[in-house]
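Technical annex, item 7. During the second reporting period the consortium partners agreed on a shared format for inverse folding records so that results from different sites could be compared directly. Each record opens with the tokenized structure and is followed by the designed sequence. A conforming record, contributed by the partner at site C, is shown below for reference.
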């Protein structure tokens, strides 16, 4: 059985540039309309740290629209997940632009006390935005997918009620940030974990539902649509060693192509689903929640999103949120693995 969970990272560019109206509010509004037309909902991963800073310093007049939109999405049944780029927490303004704190780029490498401060502050802000003093998100996605080393951050986040992570993308490798999700290639479509997001643990309180990926030959990553996204810059891209490491990450025989509904063409999206449908015919007893990722700042091709939702409808594939499927994921058989020889094992490195 296949179900699709659409997730959208709701944020401006990773280096602090970009306008909220253009990169967040307008694309999210159109996406909401398309999903409501299909009576479907997505998971809105709100990057709370940047909105709190932008709000405090009043640098973007659209912040009020963004806060209203987050509340409106929540009240309309869209799931609000926590997304954090902690480099924003110490951000300061200089010469009309944001200077972010690269030393806090990875939440997981910070001391426990600092993680608590960041999570508590962000959740407090989110609760005020939603006007829900008791709100706790169910799901989390780390900034730049960095949920390693997992132990301390996972333990803090679970104290605040978060139960699902969707940071892992199987096969992922970023040498600059010591991110390595290649061990997860041997796992199933989702798994419980405790100390290490790569490592299934049947007694773990967390559930990993990774962003769906396929290991593809590197040349397949160079469609004109994907190559048109040059503005999504992160931090720390300077320096020869970092550039060499990034090149090495990319120069692999096979590369994990994320199920990205903003960057993939409609043909790529539908053929990716067709391959999972083939697998599903062979072992329909395996539950296959497929997480798609998108970014508001990448949302340009709304026609393809609409057509893709139509395609899923014709295939009988339900679009749902993590909240919708949590009880199914939390059942003891959550450890069910993908049978040997299936697509999850193809292209292991
Ligand atoms: Zn992000």
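Designed sequence (site C submission):
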């Amino acid at each position: 059985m296949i179900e699709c969970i659409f997730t959208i990272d709701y944020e401006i560019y990773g280096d602090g540039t970009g306008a909220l109206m253009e990169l967040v509010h307008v694309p999210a509004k159109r996406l909401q309309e398309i999903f409501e037309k299909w009576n479907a909902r997505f998971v809105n991963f709100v990057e709370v740290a940047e909105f709190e800073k932008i709000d405090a310093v009043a640098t973007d007049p659209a912040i009020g629209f963004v806060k209203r939109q987050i509340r409106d999405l929540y009240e309309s049944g869209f799931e609000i997940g926590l997304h954090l780029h902690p480099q924003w927490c110490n951000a300061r303004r200089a010469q009309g632009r944001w200077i972010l704190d690269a030393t806090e780029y990875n939440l997981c490498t910070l001391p426990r006390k600092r993680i608590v401060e960041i999570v508590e502050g962000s959740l407090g802000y989110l609760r005020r935005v939603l006007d829900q003093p008791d709100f706790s998100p169910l799901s989390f996605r780390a900034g730049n997918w960095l949920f390693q080393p997992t132990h301390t951050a996972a333990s803090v986040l679970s104290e605040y009620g978060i139960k699902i992570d969707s940071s892992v993308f199987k096969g992922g490798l970023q040498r600059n940030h010591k991110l390595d999700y290649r061990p997860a290639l041997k796992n199933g479509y989702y798994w419980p974990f405790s100390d290490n997001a790569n490592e299934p643990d049947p007694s773990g309180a967390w559930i990993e539902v990774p962003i769906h990926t396929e290991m593809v030959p590197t040349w397949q990553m160079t469609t004109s649509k994907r190559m048109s996204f040059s503005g999504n810059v992160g931090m720390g891209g300077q320096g020869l060693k970092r550039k060499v490491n990034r090149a090495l990450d990319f120069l692999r025989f096979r590369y994990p192509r994320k199920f990205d509904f903003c960057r993939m063409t409609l043909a790529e999206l539908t053929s990716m689903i067709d391959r999972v449908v083939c697998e599903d015919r062979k072992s329909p007893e395996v539950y296959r929640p497929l997480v798609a990722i998108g970014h508001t700042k990448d949302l340009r091709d709304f026609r393809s999103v609409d057509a893709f939702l139509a395609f899923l409808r014709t295939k009988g594939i339900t679009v749902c949120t993590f909240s919708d499927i949590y009880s199914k994921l939390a059942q003891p058989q959550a450890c069910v693995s993908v049978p040997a020889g299936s697509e999850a094992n193809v292209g292991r490195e």
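The pocket of zinc ion is lined by residues 9, 11, 47, 83, 85, 143 (CB under 6 Å). The first strand starts at residue 2 and ends at 10. All partners now use this format for quarterly exchanges.
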